[in-house]
Structures are given as C-alpha cells and as structure tokens.
Amino acid sequence: MKIETNTNDDLSNLLKTNFYKIGDMAKLLGVHQQTLRNWERKKLIKPIRVGKIRIYTDEHIEKCKLIKSYSEKGISLAGIKALLDNGVVIK
Fold first, then answer.
1. DSSP string spanning 3-72?
2. Domain that holds residue 30
3. pLDDT tens-digit profile of 40-88?
4. Which of 5, 23, 39, 48 is spaced 20 to 30 Å from 64 by Cα?
5. What is the domain-level CATH number for residue 41?
6. How buried is residue 71: exposed, middle or buried, by Cβ count under 10 Å (0-12/13-18/19+)?
7. What pLDDT score does 6 carry?
C-alpha cells in the first residue's frame, strides 16, 4: 500500500496507528460484519479501502462505539448521522 505523507509528523503518527480488518473490528465492537457494512452504506463511517478490503483504525473504533451506543438508545441511523454530522455527542 502506498501512503503519501506531508511531514515527518504524519509518518510518525501513521506508524503509531493500529489497523484492523472488518472481522477484527466486528469482534472488538461485538457487532456483525454486516452491521459495519451497513454503517458504511449509510455514510456513518468511512473505512480506508485497499482494493476490496476495508481497513479500520482506532479512530474508527471510537466512532463505531459511539454509533453503537446511540443505536442501543433507540436512535435511528438517520438520526445518528444527523448527530455525527453536527458534532453532537449524547452521553
């Protein structure tokens, strides 16, 4: 995978990043892989794509935890998207 960076800081941050495939991500979150695909289709998350492979980072994990918690509170995916798009966090 070729990754372009602008500065040494970008490269340093990239090297510290954890990467996860969809199966690993689903296990970490306790959701089905299809749930992650659905969240992607609804534009709630945008994994890195390498060909057909989805790659997730620690940032994705945090966002997915938030999406999952909203969903468990009964908020629709459209409602979750609106909250995320507007930077609203409900605890």
1. ---SSHHHHHHHHT--EEEHHHHHHHHT--HHHHHHHHHTTS---EEETTEEEEEHHHHHHHHHHHHHHH
2. 8-85
3. 999 999 999 999 999 999 999 999 999 999 999 999 999 999 999 998 8
4. 5
5. 1.10.1660.10
6. middle
7. 53
What number of other Cβ atoms are within 10 A of residue 67's Cβ? 24
Read off the pLDDT band of 3 (50, 70, 90): very low
Look up residue 88 and give its DSSP letter. -
In a domain, 1, yes or no: no
* Residue with more model confidence, 74 or 89: 74
Length of the chain: 91
Token pair recorded at residue 80: 């979750």
Q: How far is CA 61 from each of CA 4, 7, 19, 58, 64, rounded to the nearest angstrom?
A: 23, 25, 10, 5, 5
Tokens of 76: 């629709």
